[in-house]
UniProtKB/TrEMBL annotation:
SUPFAM superfamilies: HLH, helix-loop-helix DNA-binding domain. Keywords: Nucleus, Repressor, Transcription, Transcription regulation. This is BHLH domain-containing protein. Gene3D superfamilies: Helix-loop-helix DNA-binding domain. GO terms for molecular function: protein dimerization activity. GO terms for cellular component: nucleus.
């Protein structure tokens, strides 16, 4: 049993080192993705990991707000379009109704009373 604990004691620093490497790699990736944003805000300063994480949070929040605004705008456009479609349907129905009325009136007139023959 002591051999197992000895193995765990040796393994723990290695696992911790790999964890730190993953964190550092991810932070470097964030830095490279956000570099134009960093250059605008802090052109000549060395960035710490905390700075990179804070800037990432700011950018993600801004993107989230833009996404919400776009969704609200799309919902508004859809409502307007739906309202417009309903108005068009009502206009189409009234046009169709008046066309049918005109057609019925013409059929009753003596000019159109002749039987239609295809030959």
């Amino acid at each position: 049993m002591t051999l197992f604990f000895f193995f765990l004691q040796l393994r723990k620093p290695l696992v911790e080192k790999l964890r730190r490497e993953r964190i550092n790699s991810s932070i470097e990736q964030l830095k490279s993705l956000l570099s134009p944003e960093f250059l605008k805000q802090q052109p000549d300063s060395k960035l710490e990991k905390a700075d990179i994480l804070e800037m990432t949070v700011c950018v993600l929040r801004r993107l989230q707000q833009q996404n919400q605004q776009q969704r609200r705008l799309l919902n508004h456009i859809n409502k307007l379009q739906s309202s417009s479609d309903n108005n068009l349907r009502e206009a189409d129905f009234s046009l169709l109704s008046s066309t049918v009325q005109t057609s019925i009136t013409k059929e009753k007139s003596p000019v159109n009373s002749a039987v239609w023959r295809p030959w």
